[in-house]
Amino acid sequence: MSEPEKHFKVLVVEDDGAISRVLQLELEHEGYEVESARDGLEGLEKALKEPDLVILDLMLPRMDGLEVCRRIRAKSRVPIIMLTAKDRVPDRVSGLDLGADDYLTKPFATEELLARVRARLRERAPQSNVIRFRDVVMDRDRHEVTRNDRPITLTAKEYALLEYLLLHRNKVHTRDELFNGVWGSDFLGDSNLIDVYIRYLRGKIDEGFDEKMITTVRGVGYTIRD
Predict the structure, then answer these.
(1) HEC string for 48-81
(2) How far apart are CA 58 and CA 55, in angstroms?
(3) 40-47 and 65-75 helices cross at what angle (nearest 10)?
(4) For residue 94, what pLDDT band results from cuts at 50, 70 and 90?
């Protein structure tokens, strides 16, 4: 189980009781506080009380998800992840145009939803300006990394990948989790790109040091462990 930086509150607006219950259990297992709503009007009312993130189904009784999204956006910048059983491009575009931050088409993998939730909430988390881990210091104001006081020059994506691993230490991340967390769901690429960037990052962060920063867990993914 990953540990959110704070006790975030997630609102799930979903009229299917089975799906809503599964999402609640999975999110609570991740450490989030979860509230649920079973129709659009109830979801809108609860969303305007400022949770940290809203998971919003498109097809809802009393008020559909697009209208709920539009009304939320008129008053709030809370992140919205839209769930839809419709896989047509116009439906997805409508949600994004109305202010949804992300979308998933049903059926979806729970792990992917959780990764997208983490990515959106990470943007809202109060962040310290400096991350320290062993002899590594990441200064996020200056966008600089040093190891044992030696500057390490990283590309933007290498930096983002290292930052993600440092912020989520002790959890083994699959390639898909790292891909969604660093590149985001809007990027059309291959998650095998993670292996390439891990190799690049290791070549820079570990050069000249006996102790290696990033651990490979065979068949699963990568982690940085305390």
Answers:
(1) CCCCCEEEEECCCCCCCHHHHHHHHHHHCCCCEE
(2) 10
(3) 20
(4) confident
d(CA 131, CA 171): 17
CB atoms within 10 A of CB 184: 12
- Look at the block and give the residue holding tokens 């145009």: 97
CA–CA gap between residue 209 and residue 85 (Å, rounded): 50
Tokens standing for residue 90: 């116009």
65-69, 137-141, 181-185: which has the highest mean pLDDT? 65-69
Angle formed at CA 74 by CA 72 and CA 75, multiple of 5 degrees: 70
Q: Residue 21 corresponds to which tokens in the numbers above? A: 């219950």
At 138, list the tokens: 């990441």
Type of residue found at 106:
K
Domains of the chain are: 9-124 (3.40.50.2300), 130-223 (1.10.10.10)
How many degrees, rounded to 5, is the angle at CA 170 between CA 168 and CA 176?
A: 60
> pLDDT tens digit string along 116-134?
999 888 777 655 588 888 8
Give the helix/strand (H/E) hosting 137.
strand 136-139
